[in-house]
Design brief:
There is one protein chain. The chain is of the alpha+beta class. The chain has a domain of 34 residues. The chain contains 13 helices and twelve strands. The strands form two sheets. It has a nine-stranded mixed β-sheet, sandwiched between helices. It comes from Paracoccus stylophorae. This is ATP phosphoribosyltransferase regulatory subunit. InterPro entries: aa-tRNA-synth_II/BPL/LPL (IPR045864), HisRS-like_core (IPR041715), HisRS/HisZ (IPR004516). Pfam families: tRNA-synt_His.
Amino acid sequence: MTSKRDKQQIGQRLLAAFRDAGAVEIAPDILLPAETLLDLYGEDIRARAYVTQDPVRAEMMLRPDFTVPVVQAHMENGAEPARYCYLGEVFRKQDTAQPSPDNPRDNEYLQCGFELFSRHPGADAEVFALFHRLLSPHRLSAETGDMGLVLDAVRGLPLSVARRDALLHHVWRPRRFQRLLARFSAPPAPRDFDDPDVPWTGLRTPDEMNARIARLRADAAQPPLPAVWTDRLRRLLTLRAPAPEAIAVLHGLAADMPAIADATRRIEARFDAIAALGIDPADVLFDAAHGRTTMEYYDGFTFSFLAPHDGWPAVASGGRYDALTRVLGKGRAIPAIGGIIRPGLIAEMEAA
C-alpha cells in the first residue's frame, strides 16, 4: 500500500497542473450542512454519506464530494468565466470489504479536482482534453456519455406527463427505472377501490386518500407504452462503441426518436472539438448509459478514465451539471463542467 505522503505528492502535482490551466484554488469546509445535500439527492444519500447532529448547526454531513460546495461558493460570489481547483479528502460509505491494492475503495480518500464555469461552446472538450493530457502517462481507457441524450429520449416517449416525470426521477437508478418502464409497457392491471364500510384510519386524511385513489385510477387508464418504443430505448441505452461508430448509430436512432436529434448533433460537435485538440475520437468509448449510477447532478456530457483492474473505481471522472448551478444559484445559472482525479489510485499504479 502507498503512503499518505505519496498520495499528497501526486495530489499536489495535479493541483499545480490545474493552477497552470488558470484555476484558482478553493478549500470548502469538510463538514457541510446536510439540508442542501438532502434536498438535492433525497434521503438515498444517507446510505453513502456520514451524517451527524450538531447542537448548534443542526444536521451536518462529512463532505461526500467537492462540486456542491464549490458551486455554492461560485454562485454566491463568483464572476464568469471562472476556473477552480481543489485538493482534499472526501468521505463515502462503501459496500465492499477492507480496501486493498486490488480493491482500493477507501471510506476516506483524496480528491483533486477542476471546475469550469463558462458559456464557451468548447468547454466540454477543454476539460476532457485537460484530464486526458494529465492522465495519458498512465495508459487509462477513456469513456464518455451524455445524460442529456438519455433525458431527451425519456422526454420524447409517448407517455403521460406523470409517467415521464416518474421515469426521469429514476434515470439515475437503473433498476428502479427498468421496473417502472416494464410496468408502463404492460397492460394496466385492474384496480378496484370500493367505498369502505368503516371509517379510514391512519396518518392520511380522507381527502389525501381520495386524491391518491384518483391518481391511481388515472394512471390505470393510461395505455401501455408500445413495444416499438421500449425497443428503441433499449437500443439507445445499450449503445457502447468507439465514438465514431456510436455517432453513426445515434444518427440512425434519431430518425425514429426525433427527441434525441439535437443531443446527437451536440455529441458529434463535441467530438469534433476533442479531435481538434489532438485526441482521436476512435480511442474514446461512448457509452449511452455512462453516468447513470453517479451523482444525480450530471445532466450533460460525462467522462471517466479507467484502469485495467477489476473492482477499481474510476481513476478520474466528471461531467456537466448546468441544472445544479440553477438550483444553487436560486434561479441564476451558468453552464458548468468539472471533474476529479483520485491521487491514491495513481499512487497505486505507480507503485506497481
